[in-house]
Design a protein that fits this description.
Farnesyl Diphosphate Synthase, homodimer, mainly alpha, 2 domains, 2 strands, two-stranded antiparallel ribbon
Chain lengths: 285, 285
């Protein structure tokens, strides 16, 4: 099982590069920047979620790999464009794409990765399911983009309610955490589980972001970045704010874990595991 | 025929908006900017090429409309991002998206239009053809992005050969002029005509760009923008440069016209007509 997974992870990386290079003739610049960005892969959480759900549901390995590559390409497109917009000069311990290659190239690289996500999907083995897969990919992608747009708009007009915070985070984080599992279910002919997957992933994304916020209060205060602790500090004493965010985070992560474990054939068990790990971390801190 | 076409043009506009709004809940910002950009539609040349080729080849009208919307969404995504990169503050007589809504929103709007192109395609009536349609859309999109990347890289390192100029222009202009006709042929089960369509569209795109260059020598010199006349002026006297570009443009446009007219069922006649109009303009000037 572990060995199969390692092979699959390697195949996902290969497919991501192949999709980005589609029909490439010359232009060393763009492709070099894509290779640079993808070389430091991060944890590939979304790829793992797709491969795990795909294996649980009995998808052909090549199809699960395609779904995983699709979601990772979308995620990386959003990272490259977000870093550009946020002027974040470091990504995964190295200069981010815009810092290394310039802003113009970074914009092109994000576009190329975004289109490549759809390119990777084109080889899916059952074309009859492509319309629904495509619709789902576009819907979640639009969700991510609108989330980013709302967050940027929030720079000028501070976010003052937890409901609005959660809505932004649902786009920013949850959408692409839900997508790998949703796609695996569509590919298995089980699209009806969509709402439950979304609810689990939405809760996980919000809980995950809150844990992140607890770690980053200082930096986020400096950069005027959206942060649940800072938001609550405008409404109650700072100690209470931290404590409330911890409780909220825990509730969201437990919700994610419980819901994910009700998905069939153990297909949500990896999402549940990620949630439980974060709960443990909250208890340790 | 004209009446049917008018209805179809309206349907293309509707579908473009619907795809961009997919699943939209709140975020007025992004959607408002999309509406703003799409409201001044330009000539919709690529949409017309898709609808014309589709009608010639007997496609269902709804499918031709989907192909048209896909290509126009891609084209408009590239306009929004190009304006941002080129700091072009006017588009179609009004402030461009970044000038009206800010750079962050413009980046998001381009991303949203790009993903929406694939979203529009998801409703195509024959899923069995979706893999090939998707591959073709991604390949041409990657072509456009690489062309833009190469042009931007050329700012620092001047382009000194016509071959390199044509390569850049093929990505920048020809790719999305070829795509509407290529998609119509794939949708009609006639993908084998692809190389001929590409050659006609490539020639048209290069000829079109050269006509544009002849008009814009002054502005392009000021902005250090790629221009065939300026390129040749580094190799021969200015008068000769203009004359050579006119002759090159004419040869390309005539090639486009002749090749387009060999496509079956009159499917290339609109591309041929556009080419001939530009030749007439060259003769008048």
């Amino acid at each position: 099982m572990q060995l199969i997974a390692d092979v699959a992870h390697h195949e996902v990386e290969q497919l991501m590069l192949a999709a980005a290079e589609a029909g490439a003739a010359v232009d060393a610049v763009g492709i070099a920047a894509v290779r640079y960005h993808l070389a430091e892969g991060g944890q590939r959480v979304r790829s793992r979620l797709a491969l795990h759900a795909g294996a649980s549901l009995g998808l052909e390995s090549a199809d699960a790999v395609r779904l995983a590559a699709t979601v990772e390409l979308l995620h990386n497109a959003s990272l490259v464009h977000d870093d550009l917009q946020d002027q974040e000069s470091v990504r995964r311990g190295r200069p981010s794409v815009w810092a290394a290659f310039g802003k113009d190239v970074a914009l092109c690289v994000g576009d190329l990765l975004l289109s490549s996500a759809y390119g990777a999907l084109s080889g899916f083995s059952r074309p009859a399911l492509l319309p629904e897969l495509l619709r789902c990919v576009h819907q979640r992608t639009a969700h991510v983009i609108r989330g980013q747009c709302a967050e940027l708009a929030g720079r000028d007009r501070p976010v003052t309610s937890l409901a609005e915070y959660e809505q932004i985070v649902a786009g920013k984080s949850s959408a692409l955490l839900s997508l790998p599992v949703e796609l695996a279910f569509i590919a298995a002919g089980e699209a009806a589980w969509g709402p439950r997957i979304w609810e689990a992933a939405r809760s996980f994304g919000v809980g995950y972001q809150m844990v992140d916020d607890l770690d980053d209060v200082g930096a986020d205060a400096e950069n005027h970045t959206l942060n649940a602790v800072l938001l609550l500090e405008t409404l109650c004493p700072a100690d209470d704010a931290r404590s409330l965010v911890r409780r909220q985070a825990r509730a969201h992560l437990e919700t994610a874990s419980v819901l994910a474990l009700t998905l069939p054939a153990g297909s949500g068990s990896l999402l549940a595991e990620y949630s439980s790990r974060l709960v443990l971390r909250l208890q340790r801190d």
